[in-house]
Each structure stands twice: as structure tokens, then as C-alpha cells.
Amino acid sequence: MALATSVRQVPVTVDADACIADKGCTVCVDVCPLDVLVIADDKSTAYMKYDECWYCLPCELDCPKNAITVAIPYLLR
7-71, which class in CATH? Predict the structure, then answer.
């Protein structure tokens, strides 16, 4: 898998202010079928570690705080 090198290059973004990973939430990580989302080492937020998203949306739809946004490319909409 290709490592994501910048937040701007990945389709899945996490609103760090809304994310409750610091309270033990791992919903987005648990529902991702490709395991591309991980919780940061400091447990403050989730982020996309690998740039292999299939745009399947469970991370965005299941997030209890609506902190996840999946930017689906125009040609796939």
C-alpha cells in the first residue's frame, strides 16, 4: 500500500475538533474494509495512513460525530 504523505492528497479527511478518538472511539477504523484508517499515536484523532480508499463510505456514514469526510472524485460520482 502507498503511504499517504499529506492530508491534502487523501480522499478521507478527519475533523480533529469533532473526532472523539481521544475518548476511545474507533468506529471509522473498525468499519473500514481496507484498514487504511488508523488512530494517531497520541490517540487524539483518526487519520488515513494508506492512500487506498475505495470510496465505500462506511467511515463517513458510521462516524457518531460526523467528523469524517470522503471526497469522492468527480468522475466516480
Answer: alpha beta
